[in-house]
């Protein structure tokens, strides 16, 4: 990642320069380098960029810059609920994260007020908050409720941003987005962020935007090079629970997010982990918002070590100390896999993503590998090997030669327990895998990989 341009060179107002400095942002990230000048120059833009790349500040900084320019003396804003900037997010967690980032960025600016509108929060408090707010971050459903009850008007909106537009479509927000688009149709600018420019996203862009420019920073293939991705085959759910218990005993895990396929599963897995002595808590969309907030706060403060979450609930979680993501239940779509693993390896750190799959999940694993264009390294844990032996490579028969050691001398929990510390890996194609991290000196922080003499889980060579 080349980071060469300073925020000053991007022409940002002084209060924003002070805020970026206070946040420790020394240089713009690649997405910021491209998006900030483009958004300042005007017009509509579609942006695809990697999660964790600094995309939130990439759209917040130019918008805040415009708000500062339109009120250079920082006069207090009138108490009307008529925002000039509207940011739409698919989930409450993401909306809160974006709001928090915006509040941090306006710390040194005057005359800018930020409000968050989302389901699950008391109406009265939200209505009071949006009065005089010039930037509103909202989830679509609650925003439309407030528009319908005339608690907010959108006809003064100058710029609308759709964050994680692909996710919005997944969650069925298309009609809501179009209704909101109509309510602020006089705006001069629309920015849309999405993991991909899939045809459905292009279609949405056509209906919302005027001849948008495209900024494409990373394809699915070159995403998450800082995240070591591995796979464990399991015979059954019970086997997966044993693997999970073992993997989470790894002392190099600072914090982990375990993904479950359903809300019920997230509770069950968290219960079972607690029964095994882990400090785990569940997070899913059916929980009252106050509970979700408390649990997220506890994760951010480092009080929760393991969060067991569903896809929707985990969206937008930005906690740099999450060292591991474990997929207990597989994602519905390959695209979601990329979003999930993006919860680790944030802000330039390295991370580990481990997927537990049953043999019947083979086609889903293949879809993930095809989407990311990266083979998943199949590993086994001594004493917890899958019994089913039909672990033939699913698409490209390989040589079956062993891969290189993942760690060095071992020394993980597994090795202590089972007296076998060497860890080896082999990719899902049956080919020997190069030492992606081992000895490459790539990760500068976070979990230790090769060379440390410690594997994350005491894996051994798999001749799958
Ligand atoms: P995002 O892609 O917006 O989720 O951002 C990922 C993380 O990068 C967040 O923790 C941001 O605070 C952080 N970040 C954003 N911009 C910069 C920057 N220019 N330098 C360092 N960190 C940044």
Task: Tell me what you see in this structure.
With 464 residues, the chain is an alpha/beta fold. The protein has two domains: 8-218 and 425-450, Rossmann fold (3-Layer(aba) Sandwich), CATH 3.40.50; 227-378, P-loop containing nucleotide triphosphate hydrolases (Rossmann fold). Helices cover 34% and strands 15% of the residues. It has helices at residues 14-22, 30-41, 55-70, 92-105, 123-130, 140-148, 165-170, 174-183, 199-208, 237-248, 263-275, 289-300, 311-314, 334-341, 362-372, 413-418; strands at residues 45-48, 85-88, 114-117, 135-138, 159-162, 189-194, 213-216, 227-234, 255-259, 280-283, 306-309, 322-327, 351-358, 377-378, 426-427. The strands form two sheets. It has an eight-stranded mixed sheet, with helices on both faces. The chain has a seven-stranded parallel sheet with strand order 3-4-2-5-6-1-7, with helices on both faces. Strand 10 (280-283), helix 12 (289-300) and strand 11 (306-309) form a beta-alpha-beta unit. The chain is globular. The chain binds adenosine monophosphate. Adenosine monophosphate (AMP) binds next to helix 3. Residues 25, 28-29, 32, 51-57, 318, 346-347 line the site of adenosine monophosphate (AMP).
């Amino acid at each position: 990642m080349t980071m060469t341009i300073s925020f000053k060179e991007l022409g940002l107002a002084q209060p924003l320069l002070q805020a970026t400095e206070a946040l420790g942002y020394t240089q713009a990230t690649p997405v910021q380098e491209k998006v900030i000048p483009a958004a300042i120059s005007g017009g509509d833009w579609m942006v695809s960029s990697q999660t964790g790349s600094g995309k939130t500040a990439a759209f917040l900084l130019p918008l805040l810059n415009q708000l500062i320019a339109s009120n250079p003396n920082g006069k207090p804003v009138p108490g009307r609920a008529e925002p000039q900037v509207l940011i739409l997010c698919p989930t409450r967690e993401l909306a809160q994260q974006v709001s928090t980032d915006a509040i941090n960025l306006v710390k040194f600016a005057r005359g800018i007020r930020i409000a968050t509108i989302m389901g699950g929060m008391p109406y009265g408090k939200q209505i009071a908050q949006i009065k005089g707010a010039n930037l509103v971050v909202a989830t679509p459903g609650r925003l439309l409720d407030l528009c319908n009850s005339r608690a907010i008007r959108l006809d003064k909106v100058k710029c609308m941003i759709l964050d994680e537009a692909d996710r919005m479509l997944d969650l069925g927000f298309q009609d809501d987005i179009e209704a909101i688009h109509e309510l602020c149709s006089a705006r001069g600018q629309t920015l849309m962020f999405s993991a991909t420019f899939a045809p459905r996203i292009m279609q949405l862009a056509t209906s919302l935007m005027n001849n948008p420019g495209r900024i494409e920073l990373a394809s699915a293939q070159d995403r998450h090079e800082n995240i070591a991705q591995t796979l464990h085959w399991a015979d059954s759910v019970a086997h997966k629970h044993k693997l999970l218990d073992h993997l989470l005993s790894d002392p190099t895990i600072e914090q982990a997010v375990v993904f479950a396929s359903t809300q019920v599963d997230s509770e069950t897995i968290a219960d079972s982990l607690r029964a095994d002595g882990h400090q785990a808590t569940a997070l899913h969309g059916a929980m009252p918002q106050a509970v979700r907030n408390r649990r997220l706060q506890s994760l951010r403060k480092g009080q929760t070590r393991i969060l067991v979450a569903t896809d929707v609930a985990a969206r937008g979680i930005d906690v740099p100390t999450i060292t591991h993501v474990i997929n207990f239940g597989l994602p519905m779509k390959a695209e979601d896999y990329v979003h999930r693993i993006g919860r680790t390896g944030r802000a330039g750190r390295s991370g580990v993503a481990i997927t537990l799959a049953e043999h019947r999940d083979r086609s889903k694993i293949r879809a993930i590998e095809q989407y990311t264009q990266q083979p998943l390294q199949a590993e086994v844990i001594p004493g917890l090997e899958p019994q089913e032996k039909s672990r033939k490579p699913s698409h490209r028969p390989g040589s079956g030669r062993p891969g290189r050691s993942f760690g060095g001398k071992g020394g993980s929990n597994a090795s202590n327990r089972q007296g076998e510390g060497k860890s080896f890996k082999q990719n899902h194609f049956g080919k020997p895998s190069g030492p992606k991290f081992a000895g490459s000196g790539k990760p500068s922080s976070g979990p230790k990989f090769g060379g440390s003499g410690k594997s994350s889980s005491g894996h051994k060579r798999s001749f799958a």
